[in-house]
Amino acid sequence: MTTPLDLNALAASSIHEVKNLLGQLTLSLEEIAQIQCPGTEQQIAGARFACSRIVDRLTEMLVLYKLDGGHLHPSIAAHSPADFLEDLMLSANNLTAGRIEICIQLETTAPDFWFFDRDLIESALMNAVHNALSHARSRILLTTEQSGEYLIFRVIDDGAGYPADLLQAPLNAPRVSNQGGGLGLFFAHSVARAHQNKDRSGKVQLENTTSGGAAFILYLP
Amino acid sequence: MALMEINFPEKRVLIIDDHPGMRSSMRAILNGFGVVLVEMASTANEAIRRLQAKPFDVIVCDYFLGDGSDGQQFLEQIRRNNLISLSTIFVMVTAERVYEKVVSAVELAPDDYLIKPFSGEVMRSRLERVMQKKLAFAPIYQLLENGKLAEATQLCTELTKHSSKYTIDILRLLAELYVAQGKFDEAQEIYQQVVNLRAVPWARMGLATMLHFQNRHQEAEELLEEIIDEAPEYMAAYDLLSKVCESQDKNERAQQVLERAVAASPLTMHRQKDMGQLAMRNGDMEAAEKAFENVVARGKTSFFRMAEDYANLSRVQMELGKHNEALNTLRDARTSFNGSAEATFTASVMESLVHQKTGNVEASVKALTSALEIQKTHSIKSQEDLSLDLAKACFAHGKDDEAKSLIENLVLNNHDSVTLIQKAKQLFHEAGMGEEGAAIVDGSVKAVIQLNNQGVLKAKQGDLDGSVQLLTEAAEKMPGNLQIILNAAQALLVHIDKRGWNEDYMKSALHYIQVARSKSAAHPKLLSVNKLAQDMTKKYGVAA
Known about the structure:
The complex is a heterodimer. Chain A is an alpha+beta fold. Chain A has two domains: 7-68; 77-220, 2-Layer Sandwich (Heat Shock Protein 90), CATH 3.30.565.10. Chain A contains six helices and nine strands; from the N terminus they run H-H-E-H-E-E-H-E-E-H-H-E-E-E-E. Chain A has helices at residues 7-35, 41-68, 81-96, 118-135, 164-168, 182-194; strands at residues 77-79, 101-106, 114-116, 139-147, 150-157, 196-197, 200-201, 203-208, 214-220. The longest helix of chain A has 29 residues, at 7-35. By secondary structure, chain B is mainly α. Among the domains of chain B are: 8-145, Rossmann fold (3-Layer(aba) Sandwich); 266-398, Tetratricopeptide repeat domain (Serine Threonine Protein Phosphatase 5, Tetratricopeptide repeat, Alpha Horseshoe), CATH 1.25.40.10; 451-539, Tetratricopeptide repeat domain (Serine Threonine Protein Phosphatase 5, Tetratricopeptide repeat, Alpha Horseshoe), CATH 1.25.40.10. Chain B has 26 helices and five strands. Chain B has a five-stranded parallel beta sheet, sandwiched between helices. In chain B, helix 11 (235-247) packs antiparallel against helix 12 and helix 23 runs antiparallel to helix 24. Classes of the chains: A alpha+beta, B mainly alpha. Chain A binds chain B through residues 16, 19-20, 22-28, 30-31, 34, 48, 51, 55, 59, 62-63, 73, 75-78, 80, 82-83, 86-87, 90-91, 93-94, 112-113, 115, 117, 119, 197, and chain B through 21-22, 25-26, 28-29, 31-32, 95-97, 100-101, 103-104, 115-117, 119-122, 125-126, 129, 163-165, 167-169, 197-198, 200, 230-231.
């Protein structure tokens, strides 16, 4: 008797494998970048962007797979929000080759440390950064502040803003769209919700700024 | 905070990864921001050889090391064996989120970890940040490296008064410093302070450990069950829960708990060893054999193998009647340690017993003679079980006097160990000297108790000099007896309290406390004696 194929487990292990191969590909890209062949910066940044998006998408799939099985427990530790944003900026810079300017703004209320899962939140915000990179005209702003019992991260671009239907759509289910983006928002929402402290849980909010750009806002209790 | 410029070209970096492609990619990344002094190792053992040859500033280690071991085990081994200093930076690299879970609960965490893939920029930024942190902690590390625990504690306490991004790390270090000084109440307070901010796993584990040290086993058990329930992957919680169960005589439960942890992480050797010993105490020889076999097999390729692992395995094999296997194990021990005195001694003791069991008297006597000879010429710190086995072999060949003195010495040093007393009497019984043996054992126990009582009585009667003399002499004679040495420490401290400051007395008292703490940090008497020592340093305004 043959055992039935466990497609879920199979998919999960394939995703792992593909992710590791992409890891090697990214390292190779780093080595190519170091040769500093003139005129290749944009192509390399483009290839990095593609790799980064694929890796992030796969990471999301794995995290959501765990979430579905009820196994997603964030690994909470104390981190400096300022250091965290700096790393995010470095990763984002790596993907644009200077095409888009990425800035950090630390509000005076930003705490010295906060408790969160650094890697999950980085994945969630990277997603927002990817979107911003695709839509920004020239500039992306990353900010952090404390408001009441929450730490807030914002990813703000100077593009045309979110379409009205997206602003109104509920985030608690993946939106199927052939341009991507829907899964990313659902992922960010799920990761934020998984952060619980006392009776509060994290959340995601989408807004358009007064100057029209998109603002992705993440609250962490 | 103004950042100090990090000079990457002068940093020595060791890369550990079993995958050659990954090693060279990692080197390319490091070269990219100016790191040039790079060495590489493909296994943990190779890395250890390099660490012994020269110091490194940074170790970049992959979590999966290919040969089945992992980077976390490697980190724990090199930190516990002091192969790297506090200022050495250890960064773990991993392809999976799995490690995140591990790192949030471990007692010895790396300075940072990176999830693959990452860019050179992120690697540089993380390294710079850890280096800044090491600089911020440098004054504390310096005090610690000079053994100045009290000053380091004071400095940490100062630093926690101002919030910074290092606040939580300093609190964690502070709690560990309190534990190292036996100040469990203070440590508990710090862990509680962190838990109040957020119930992070290591702080909850810290709380459970303090409860265990304070003999509050029931509370410790409940907390550990909660932790395991929420995060079944925290292996250290199983280790502690097993100990807590054993402290309450729930021996079977203790073994079940450990079995679960062993099944989940079969390659962690200290756990396999604990498992083997626990199973042996529980009389489950099959489980003990399996565990010790794993320890020995694993140890063959490990830098951290010990002769006693082979003794343990051969002892179980003998119990199971597998005499040839036991002899093979011991032959292995000799070759594996290139005939070191300790290994030869260990193998000889056990071989004497095995040969005796199979009726090969000549070989048995020869092995025993060799063991006694080595013990005389080399100062060998023999494990309790091995000393008992040696006594057993002595009995078997009519060397009753040697056996008696070995056992007497063991009892004097462990008069309050119920298991040892039982084993000692059993040994006499097997040698057909049940009555005489019981008299010797009980006599030794009584002698220790009398000594203790006399010392305490003298102190009560005001003969503080007499008390000090009696108990310090006893402590010299029975350096392994924690109750005696702690009573000696107490006598010295009471003398200081009543007769005035005496620096030599204080030094001896602190030495005894240190010895007791290194053997059993949870000894019930340790708390009160330690408190007395602190009170005396305060009373006379001397920094301990």
